[in-house]
Amino acid sequence: MHPPIHTRYVDLLCFLVINQLVTRTLTRRWLRPDYLVESMRAWLSSQQTQCDWRDRIWLARASGEIARSMYSVDERAPPSASSLLQLCRHDVDNTTIEALMLRAKCTQYLRTHV
């Protein structure tokens, strides 16, 4: 039996949101769909896990919504590239304030939208 989606996919969703925010910060554009798909495949492969294609579509959309909500809090002071890249370098389960806040935001999103 699989765990509920809100716990099963929280790490993947955090990873995708970070990718969205890094791309937006560095290029002023959101992650292109083909890069989003490739990012998802790479993460799933590195974790040696699987994800149903319907869940992949849903998670891709969710990552965009969460990233936009985080970015639009203050367009004048978006997250810095260095702080986002620091999140990328560490496991999403680390104990930095940023990582914990991101994980909580993703977990809450999954709980309320699934």
Based on the model shown, name its key terms.
globular, mainly alpha, 0% strand, 114 residues
Describe this entry's structure for a reader.
- This protein is an all-alpha fold and 114 residues long.
- It has one domain (5-113).
- It is 71% helix and 0% strand.
- The chain is built from six helices and no strands.
- The longest helix has 19 residues, at 53-71.
| Total count of strands | 0
User: Count of DSSP helices?
Assistant: 6
Radius of gyration: 13 Å
β-strand percent reads: under 5%
Largest sheet: none
If you average the pLDDT, what whole number results? 83
How many domains? The number is 1
The outline comes out as globular
Low-confidence runs of at least 5 consecutive residues: none
Determine the fraction of residues in helical runs and give it as a percent range: over 70%
Structural class: mainly alpha
Roughly how many Å apart are the termini?
A: 17 Å
Q: From N to C, what is the helix and strand string?
A: HHHHHH
What's a concise summary of this model?
The protein has 114 residues and is an all-alpha fold. It is 71% helix and 0% strand.
Topology (SSEs and partners):
Layout (H helix, E strand, L loop, with lengths): L4 H4 L1 H18 L5 H14 L6 H19 L9 H9 L7 H17 L1
Helix pairs in contact: 2-3, 2-4, 2-5, 2-6
